[in-house]
Known about the structure:
243 residues; alpha+beta; six-stranded mixed sheet; four-stranded mixed sheet; 6 helices; 24% helix; globular
Amino acid sequence: MNQFLSKQLSTKIISGILGLSLLSSIAPAQAQIRIKLPNLGVPGRRVPGGSRGENCVAKNQRLTALVPKSNLALTTVANPTLYFYIPENKATELELIIQDENDQEVYKQNYKPNGSAGVVGINLPNNTLATDKMYRWNFSIICNTQDRSLDKLVEGGIKRIENSSLMSKLEKASLQERLNIFAEAGIWQDVLDTLAQLRYSHPQDTVFKEDWESLLTSQGVEFDQQLAQAPLVKEQNVMQPIN
């Protein structure tokens, strides 16, 4: 397929997003994050395929993109944060690439890993994503720069949507209120990032931790409990950008 997605798929996403609903609420003592995701998807994979030869990743650990099973995530911002579980590794580099609908590269960044494991968020630069455009991302653990076939690669899609009613609700909302607003609209990437920010700012709050686990194991996402309980860490604790 020459282009990432057809215009027909893009139109379906826009028309369908307003009908999304959330079966969730946040209670003071119980995690209940549940999100009903669009019945749409894109080509991609949340975990790398099998490979032979050199392996720079710890045994029984896998690079994992924190996206729904559909490989498609929606956002309302031009510079969303993408989340990945990075396993223990002895990699040479990590690499993130963003491409537009015409397979043109709009962003590329390489990183030097320190070998540590954890879920990390990578914030894209301002104005990376245009409204109502579909983008493809791929993130790689590079085991050997001379043989890229040995890369551990995950890939998927992200689309920035515009919804004036939603944005109006967000204007004066607190971070926790934003979590519910995004969830009610089914905006995966913003739900995940908002919850991550709440966890960063309240590291001892068990409810936010349980909400995170609930979200990652919910219908249409369905990661296992081990991944859902993996530590959430700051980017600089796992990798450093290579200029």
